[in-house]
Amino acid sequence: MSTWSVPSEFTVGLLATTDWGASGSRRRGHGAADLSQGIHSQQDLTRALVSICGLGQFELRVNGSNVSDAVMEPSWTNYTKNCHYVTTT
User: Fold this and answer.
1) CB of 73 within 8 A of CB of 32?
2) Which residues does 60 contact at the CB level (< 8 Å), separation at least 6?
3) What is the pLDDT of residues 11-55, one digit of tens each?
4) 8 A C-beta contact, residue 66 and residue 60
5) What is the pLDDT of residue 25?
6) Does the global pTM surpass 0.70?
7) Residue 66's pLDDT is what?
8) Of 57, 64, 66, which is closest to residue 86 (Cα–Cα)?
9) What is d(CA 36, CA 21) in angstroms, rounded to the nearest whole number?
């Protein structure tokens, strides 16, 4: 027997394939795609989560600023078998 642990929380990715999506593709000169998705909130946000899957690597920017110092995310995978995604706040 042990004492109860303190309450905690966790987040999982979106479960339905229809929940995933982006739009607004344009090509840059070096061949990388530039995808953008506008999000507008009527309320003041205190926290937001972004789950992103880039086939290859990606850089996530919000209002022009990189949200992470990580580079070359997600890790390499065999895209015919699975695709990794990253969730960031």
Assistant:
1) no
2) 50, 52, 66, 67, 68, 88
3) 776 778 787 666 655 655 565 666 666 777 778 888 888 877 777
4) yes
5) 58
6) no
7) 82
8) 57
9) 10
User: What would the two tokens of residue 48 be?
Assistant: 């937001």
What pLDDT, in 10s, does the model give residues 73-82?
777 788 888 8
Extract the tokens encoding 68: 């992470």
Tokens of 3: 């004492």
Show me where the domains of the chain are located.
45-89
